[in-house]
Amino acid sequence: MSSCFGSRKTSRNSDTEPLLPQYADDTSLQRAAHQKMHSYQMLRALSKGFMPSTEQVIINLRTLLASDVLNPETPGLSESGRKLVKYMKQWVAQFIELVKNKNDGDQIQDFIWYIIHARLQIDTGDLVKTATSTRSKADASAGTSSDIPLELSLIILQPTRASEQSAVCF
User: pTM, whole model, 2 decimals?
Assistant: First the structure.
Protein backbone atom coordinates (compact mmCIF):
# COMPACT_ATOMS: atom_id res chain seq x y z
CA MET A 1 0.00 0.00 0.00
CA SER A 2 1.38 3.41 -1.01
CA SER A 3 1.12 6.60 0.95
CA CYS A 4 2.99 9.87 1.22
CA PHE A 5 5.27 8.20 3.79
CA GLY A 6 6.35 5.39 1.51
CA SER A 7 5.10 1.87 1.05
CA ARG A 8 3.65 0.00 3.98
CA LYS A 9 4.00 -3.72 4.19
CA THR A 10 1.05 -5.54 5.64
CA SER A 11 2.18 -8.17 8.06
CA ARG A 12 -0.03 -10.80 9.58
CA ASN A 13 0.46 -11.67 13.17
CA SER A 14 1.23 -15.39 13.52
CA ASP A 15 -1.45 -15.65 16.22
CA THR A 16 -4.22 -14.75 13.77
CA GLU A 17 -3.12 -16.87 10.81
CA PRO A 18 -5.12 -20.05 10.25
CA LEU A 19 -3.35 -23.11 11.58
CA LEU A 20 -5.13 -25.43 9.17
CA PRO A 21 -4.35 -25.46 5.46
CA GLN A 22 -6.69 -23.84 2.92
CA TYR A 23 -7.59 -26.06 -0.07
CA ALA A 24 -8.71 -25.30 -3.62
CA ASP A 25 -10.73 -28.39 -4.52
CA ASP A 26 -11.28 -29.50 -8.11
CA THR A 27 -13.67 -32.42 -7.62
CA SER A 28 -16.34 -33.36 -5.12
CA LEU A 29 -14.25 -36.36 -4.04
CA GLN A 30 -11.32 -34.06 -3.22
CA ARG A 31 -13.65 -31.69 -1.38
CA ALA A 32 -15.05 -34.55 0.73
CA ALA A 33 -11.54 -35.82 1.50
CA HIS A 34 -10.36 -32.34 2.48
CA GLN A 35 -13.43 -31.80 4.69
CA LYS A 36 -12.69 -35.02 6.55
CA MET A 37 -9.02 -34.08 6.87
CA HIS A 38 -10.02 -30.59 8.05
CA SER A 39 -12.32 -32.07 10.73
CA TYR A 40 -9.54 -34.38 11.89
CA GLN A 41 -7.08 -31.49 12.05
CA MET A 42 -9.55 -29.37 14.05
CA LEU A 43 -10.00 -32.14 16.61
CA ARG A 44 -6.26 -32.67 16.78
CA ALA A 45 -5.67 -28.93 17.32
CA LEU A 46 -8.21 -28.94 20.15
CA SER A 47 -6.52 -31.94 21.74
CA LYS A 48 -3.16 -30.12 21.54
CA GLY A 49 -4.59 -27.15 23.46
CA PHE A 50 -5.34 -24.74 20.63
CA MET A 51 -8.60 -22.83 20.94
CA PRO A 52 -10.80 -21.79 18.00
CA SER A 53 -11.62 -18.14 17.55
CA THR A 54 -15.17 -16.95 18.06
CA GLU A 55 -15.56 -16.64 14.31
CA GLN A 56 -14.49 -20.25 13.81
CA VAL A 57 -16.90 -21.44 16.52
CA ILE A 58 -19.77 -19.57 14.89
CA ILE A 59 -18.93 -20.95 11.44
CA ASN A 60 -18.86 -24.51 12.76
CA LEU A 61 -22.12 -24.05 14.68
CA ARG A 62 -23.80 -22.64 11.56
CA THR A 63 -22.55 -25.65 9.63
CA LEU A 64 -24.14 -27.85 12.30
CA LEU A 65 -27.41 -25.92 11.96
CA ALA A 66 -27.44 -26.46 8.20
CA SER A 67 -26.66 -30.18 8.46
CA ASP A 68 -29.20 -32.99 8.33
CA VAL A 69 -28.45 -33.87 11.94
CA LEU A 70 -30.65 -30.99 13.14
CA ASN A 71 -33.39 -31.40 10.53
CA PRO A 72 -36.70 -32.00 12.35
CA GLU A 73 -38.24 -33.33 9.12
CA THR A 74 -35.93 -36.36 9.06
CA PRO A 75 -38.01 -39.45 8.28
CA GLY A 76 -38.26 -42.01 11.05
CA LEU A 77 -38.31 -39.54 13.94
CA SER A 78 -41.08 -39.77 16.48
CA GLU A 79 -43.03 -36.68 17.49
CA SER A 80 -40.92 -36.29 20.64
CA GLY A 81 -37.76 -36.75 18.54
CA ARG A 82 -38.90 -34.00 16.18
CA LYS A 83 -39.51 -31.69 19.14
CA LEU A 84 -36.09 -32.51 20.58
CA VAL A 85 -34.36 -31.75 17.27
CA LYS A 86 -36.38 -28.53 16.91
CA TYR A 87 -35.43 -27.39 20.42
CA MET A 88 -31.77 -28.34 19.89
CA LYS A 89 -31.73 -26.31 16.68
CA GLN A 90 -33.21 -23.32 18.54
CA TRP A 91 -30.68 -23.75 21.34
CA VAL A 92 -27.73 -23.81 18.90
CA ALA A 93 -29.07 -20.67 17.16
CA GLN A 94 -29.44 -18.90 20.51
CA PHE A 95 -25.97 -20.05 21.54
CA ILE A 96 -24.55 -18.56 18.33
CA GLU A 97 -26.16 -15.21 19.20
CA LEU A 98 -24.82 -15.41 22.76
CA VAL A 99 -21.29 -16.15 21.56
CA LYS A 100 -21.46 -13.33 19.01
CA ASN A 101 -22.68 -10.79 21.54
CA LYS A 102 -20.70 -11.79 24.63
CA ASN A 103 -17.43 -13.19 23.28
CA ASP A 104 -16.58 -10.92 20.38
CA GLY A 105 -12.98 -10.46 21.47
CA ASP A 106 -12.24 -14.14 22.22
CA GLN A 107 -12.23 -13.45 25.98
CA ILE A 108 -13.39 -16.97 26.89
CA GLN A 109 -10.60 -18.54 24.82
CA ASP A 110 -8.06 -16.23 26.45
CA PHE A 111 -9.40 -17.07 29.92
CA ILE A 112 -9.13 -20.81 29.23
CA TRP A 113 -5.61 -20.38 27.84
CA TYR A 114 -4.48 -18.43 30.92
CA ILE A 115 -6.03 -20.99 33.26
CA ILE A 116 -4.33 -23.86 31.46
CA HIS A 117 -0.94 -22.15 31.51
CA ALA A 118 -1.14 -20.71 35.03
CA ARG A 119 1.29 -22.00 37.59
CA LEU A 120 -0.63 -22.33 40.80
CA GLN A 121 0.52 -24.01 43.98
CA ILE A 122 -1.96 -24.85 46.72
CA ASP A 123 -0.93 -26.02 50.18
CA THR A 124 -3.54 -28.75 50.60
CA GLY A 125 -2.17 -29.80 53.98
CA ASP A 126 -2.88 -26.36 55.41
CA LEU A 127 -6.37 -26.38 53.86
CA VAL A 128 -7.17 -29.75 55.43
CA LYS A 129 -5.83 -28.63 58.83
CA THR A 130 -7.88 -25.42 58.75
CA ALA A 131 -11.03 -27.22 57.65
CA THR A 132 -10.63 -29.85 60.37
CA SER A 133 -10.10 -27.31 63.13
CA THR A 134 -13.04 -25.22 61.92
CA ARG A 135 -15.24 -28.31 61.81
CA SER A 136 -14.27 -29.39 65.32
CA LYS A 137 -14.90 -25.85 66.66
CA ALA A 138 -18.32 -25.79 64.98
CA ASP A 139 -19.18 -29.23 66.36
CA ALA A 140 -18.09 -28.21 69.87
CA SER A 141 -20.08 -24.98 69.84
CA ALA A 142 -23.16 -26.75 68.47
CA GLY A 143 -23.01 -29.38 71.21
CA THR A 144 -22.58 -26.94 74.12
CA SER A 145 -24.97 -24.21 72.99
CA SER A 146 -28.04 -26.39 73.23
CA ASP A 147 -30.24 -26.17 76.32
CA ILE A 148 -31.67 -29.64 75.73
CA PRO A 149 -29.51 -32.57 76.85
CA LEU A 150 -28.30 -34.83 74.05
CA GLU A 151 -30.25 -37.87 75.24
CA LEU A 152 -33.50 -35.94 75.41
CA SER A 153 -33.04 -34.48 71.94
CA LEU A 154 -32.44 -37.98 70.55
CA ILE A 155 -35.63 -39.27 72.16
CA ILE A 156 -37.67 -36.35 70.81
CA LEU A 157 -36.23 -36.65 67.30
CA GLN A 158 -36.75 -40.43 66.99
CA PRO A 159 -39.61 -41.33 64.66
CA THR A 160 -42.45 -43.11 66.44
CA ARG A 161 -45.24 -45.31 65.19
CA ALA A 162 -48.76 -43.89 65.10
CA SER A 163 -49.86 -46.15 67.98
CA GLU A 164 -46.97 -44.99 70.22
CA GLN A 165 -47.38 -41.25 69.59
CA SER A 166 -49.62 -40.72 72.62
CA ALA A 167 -47.43 -42.83 74.94
CA VAL A 168 -44.13 -40.92 74.79
CA CYS A 169 -42.46 -40.97 78.22
CA PHE A 170 -39.78 -38.58 79.46
Answer: 0.49
